[in-house]
Amino acid sequence: MSIPRERGDLTPLTLPTDDDGWRAWLVERCDDQLDRGRRLVDELRGSSDAADAADVLQRWNLVTLALANAMSASSVMSNVLPSESLRTQAEVAMQEARKLATDLTLDADLHAIFADLDVTGLDDDARRVLDRTLRDFRRAGVDRSDDERERLRELAERETLVGQEFAKNIRDDVRRVRLDPGQLDGLPDDYRAGHPVGADGRVEVTTDYPDVIPLLTFAHDREARHTMMLAFNNRAWPLNDGLLRELLELRAEHAALLGYASWPDYDAEVKMIGSGHAIENFIDEVTAAAASSGERDRGRLLARLQRDHPDAVTIDRVDSTYYAEVVRREEYDVDAHTVRTYFDFDRVRQGLLDVTGRLFGLTYRPLPDAPRWHDDVTAYDVELDEALLGRIYLDLHPREGKFKHAAQFTITPGVNGHQLPEGVLACNFPRGLMEHRDVVTLFHEFGHLIHHVVAGQQDWARFSGVATEWDFVEAPSQLLEHWAWDADVLATFAVNAEGAPIPADLVARMRAANDFGKGYLARTQMFYAAVSYYVHRADLGEVTDLTAYVAQLQAAYDLFPFVDGTHFHTSFGHLEGYTSGYYTYMWSLVIAKDLFSAFDPDDLFEPVTAQRYRDRVLAPGGRRDAADLVQDILGRPYTIDAWTRWLNT
After folding, report:
1. What is the dihedral of CA 522, 206, 510, 222, to 10 degrees?
2. Can you give the pTM of this predicted structure?
């Protein structure tokens, strides 16, 4: 991968150090960038060279970059800044950025400039930019009547507001459960030490991930698990019930005005899958494929539950995670309490950098004095062959008001000659010992960050970073998870308090234990995908109770029953971002399993394949279709075969 020489004098952004600085920074990165975009559009309209396709597209590239800067800064900072007033400022900035984007793509005169361009002489990248730009105009509704365009503008603005409120309610609703100390029996000593007994003789746990996941996994007390399950799956209830209904109604009207049969048809048009009907078929295909192994392993869970509770006739989510851990401990000789002693957070974070640096030829330069928004955040410059590629920030622990899941956010997209790519990993991991599943999640999310930086060496803002079809973006991250399951890789950083590396035979047992339940977990994923898809297809005049509708979908797709008293859909944050496309995770996994076949499983540090993958799949960003990227490294079109073998093994 070559680094353009003109990037040599580019430097990362300098972040503020206090609230006043952040207020000014948000104005500069959001309001000022939007003003710049408006000026550039005015210049484009008035340019005497507007008939020259290359010139028009270069001008539009600068508009795209200005919009991307405003959207990126507002999105990430609304999710990570400690100050609520600053997060609100960022949310307002995002509203303005999306409003401008909508206004531009509904502008018939602006559209005419692009539609009339003579493409003779344009290279492939420029033609692709023009293609995608014209598609944006069409999908915005530029060809609709004046009244319809005005309504589409209103819908887009309201969708932004409602979506932001939906996400904010999940982010802000941290629920607290008070338990008797004995109800923490089974949990690790460091967890219990981190939850001291209060003056009332009880301990407090929250619905943040470092609290809830260990409790559901290890707590012997079923009442404690049930109480936590209710609290976790009732976040943002009841506020988000009405907001989700409104959001679904807005999207349905939006799609109908544009001539689509449903929102999923509109949403899927620009993805690999192509249509809403194909989503439905894919969900059903995976549901059928996972039935046999899923029902088998669910039966094993139920049998183990019945040894403790002979009267049990079914098993639900209150018990499934706990008894899956029991089965793995008893039948596979994998004790998660022992496993976690090898995964100290600080060592894991450094190990992640060492592994991915070695794999992809990258160097991470720590920046202990770099300004950042919280003391928990660590910053690094990313280099390749001593050339600066970009900068990353790792924000990995929970705090009040912060994004509650795990994701990569863009600060700046990288564009040659203009700016370096910068990104943030926002997660919610514990500060001490980590569960191995957290290690896998960290590798997964870091895969997005690598993709953003490596693919941030573009001439066109449109193609910068993770700019592939949205149902491919998870594949590179799911591929990287394999390195978190390899004994030789883990031995480079996973050591216990005595300094002994994790034994290879333990890793082998962990891998065997991890295969347990993959069928019923795939079915659960299809339940989530079905919720994402079918709530966007539902006749909301007939579906008067979203909770009951989601429970029906769970009965049809999941292998575990609905837990009475829960309202999963109100805290299902992917309904805001992924909308009808949660199937993406399984679709991408199918591709990731095939991609892994290009690597030598006995030598995951083999450099030739890793660097070919870096250069041919990650580096192009959005310059090529995802299917072509995969074919380039596999030498053939991707297939479902590797995923099917994995599922049935």
Report:
1. -80
2. 0.95
